[in-house]
TrEMBL record:
PglD N-terminal domain: residues covered: 11-83
Family classification: Belongs to the transferase hexapeptide repeat family.
Name of protein: Acetyltransferase
UniProt KW keywords: Acyltransferase, Repeat, Transferase
GO molecular function terms noted in the UniProt entry: acyltransferase activity
Site features described as Increases basicity of active site His, chain residue numbers: 145
Presence of keyword Cell cycle: no
Species of origin: Neoroseomonas marina
Top-level division of the source organism's lineage: Bacteria
Signal sequence, start to end: none
Residue numbers binding substrate: 77
Length: 220
């Protein structure tokens, strides 16, 4: 990377020192619009991640904002926890910009919500719309006219064909394929490798080819 160029990019704080935090830092270190300013974590257990220092726990958020770091990203894979962390960052005064890996492809007219992250080799088709804090992970495809609502996660290698709608906080698992025009309800989980041919209601877990609801587990 051209270090002169890196020094001119605005700095962004990463919240989360776990596996997903590592993926976000890798995205930032690949170049693009932002450079990592450091990492904070709710319970820090390491001194650095990919060579980027861990600056402390979330008590550091307000001082770091006061020191001039204006942007942050909640690098947390769990949808609900990421959404909550995004709210804490906003309350501390941080902006939540879109993060885009240099190798991703963004189609004409696509709209990307605040705090969304588009990872390596992901494709966002023309006039697709992503809500706030959406993850489109490595190699995933969100085709034309899809709508992915706030806090949802499209896992590595998943494919949303044209016109799919994914509800708030839903997870489309790695390698899953969603038929054109299908709606995935809020909070639903699509198992890895599933082929989803029909709409999935809110709060349901489906898996298999073709995808079918999994039986509910009895209470412990």
């Amino acid at each position: 990377m051209d270090t002169t160029k890196a020094e001119t990019r605005p700095r962004i704080l990463v919240l989360g020192a776990g596996g997903h935090g590592k993926a976000v830092l890798d995205l930032l270190l690949a170049g693009g619009e932002w450079q990592p300013a450091g990492v904070v974590d709710a319970t820090p257990r390491v001194a650095s991640v990919l060579g980027i220092p861990v600056l402390g726990d979330e008590a550091r958020l307000v001082p770091l904002r006061a020191a001039g770091i204006g942007a942050a990203h909640p690098a947390i894979g769990h949808n609900g926890h990421r959404t909550a962390a995004g709210a804490r960052l906003l309350a501390a005064g941080f902006a939540l910009p879109v993060l885009r890996h240099p190798s991703c492809v963004i189609g004409h007219g696509a709209a990307l919500g605040d705090g969304s992250a588009i990872f390596a080799r992901a494709v966002i088709g023309p006039e697709a719309r992503l809500g706030r804090l959406v993850l489109v992970n490595t190699g995933a495809i969100v085709e034309h006219d899809c709508i992915v609502e706030d806090g949802a996660h499209i896992a590595p290698g998943a494919v949303l064909a044209g016109g799919v709608r994914v509800g708030t906080g839903a997870l489309v698992g790695a390698g899953a394929v969603i038929r054109p025009g299908v709606t995935i309800g809020a909070g639903s989980i699509i198992g890895a490798g599933a082929a989803v041919l029909t709409d999935v209601p809110a709060g349901v877990t489906v898996a298999g080819v073709p995808a079918q609801p999994l039986p509910e587990r009895p209470p412990a």
